[in-house]
């Protein structure tokens, strides 16, 4: 379905981004992999994608908190593929702390990566999408784009912000054959979530098992973590012609969390 299209997936060396990149590769899209990690392992993962799916894959390790690196990333994509058809703004980090103790550098990092980076990639990719007359922008927001939890001030602010930006981009591109939507997962078992368990346990004074069952899954009526594969398939749907009228949508995938 996506043969000949180029998909940039930010933060695709791990977790949800890696899963979405794989789902798009399975539809034939060429990939731009981005994110941090062990470069040998990343190159092995890229080679595996090339071999398994018969697609072109480039890796660009741009630090998306740095505007000049984002500009160089999109420039490199244009040079390699001539355009950018699908943009998945997925890279994100988390930090949990009460607001009056929230480290300023963590606030700045979360706003830069989880919100501002998507502004920069979007503003740079949109002219390329308009040039080709087709585009799909998918923002990985969160249930925290719709509701709040304590100790996550920067994350909740950034995710509410990206939901708002999603709607604005959808309106500005409505007649351009470009759609922009936000996927809002509840808890997905990835390194990002795993790394919050110990901190949350310490702050709340409970065990790590209690954080998983009584804090995280307590919010999810299904009592199941969302899977990376479910998010990959949703991203594929949003790139399909069936989703041509789905734009500006803020789509919860949260086991019923925000229905309560
Ligand atoms: P993850 O930690 O597994 O992956 C994050 C990715 O971002 C990695 O590839 C990492 O290298 C990359 N990254 C980190 N800093 C970067 C930087 N400065 N520049 C470029 N890349 C950088 O996380 P995940 O759980 O897969 O989360 C992915 C997205 O989904 C995030 O935006 C997150 O907020 C969102 N999300 C996750 C969950 C969940 O439960 N895991 C729930 C809702 C939303």
Walkthrough of the structure:
The protein is an alpha/beta fold and 260 residues long. It has two domains: 6-187 and 226-251, NAD(P)-binding Rossmann-like Domain (Rossmann fold, 3-Layer(aba) Sandwich); 188-224, no CATH class. Helices cover 48% and strands 13% of the residues. The protein contains eight helices and seven strands. It has helices at residues 15-26, 39-53, 67-81, 104-132, 153-172, 191-204, 208-216, 228-238, and strands spanning 6-9, 30-34, 57-60, 86-89, 135-140, 178-185, 250-253. It has a seven-stranded parallel beta sheet with strand order 3-2-1-4-5-6-7, with helices on both faces. It starts with 5 loop residues before the first strand and ends in a 7-residue tail after the last strand. The structure holds nicotinamide-adenine-dinucleotide. Nicotinamide-adenine-dinucleotide binds at residues 10-11, 13-17, 34-37, 63-65, 90-93, 113-114, 140, 142, 185, 187-188, 190-193.
SSE order and pairing:
Blueprint: E1 6-9, H1 15-26, E2 30-34, H2 39-53, E3 57-60, H3 67-81, E4 86-89, H4 104-132, E5 135-140, H5 153-172, E6 178-185, H6 191-204, H7 208-216, H8 228-238, E7 250-253
Helix pairs in contact: 1-8, 3-4, 4-5, 6-7
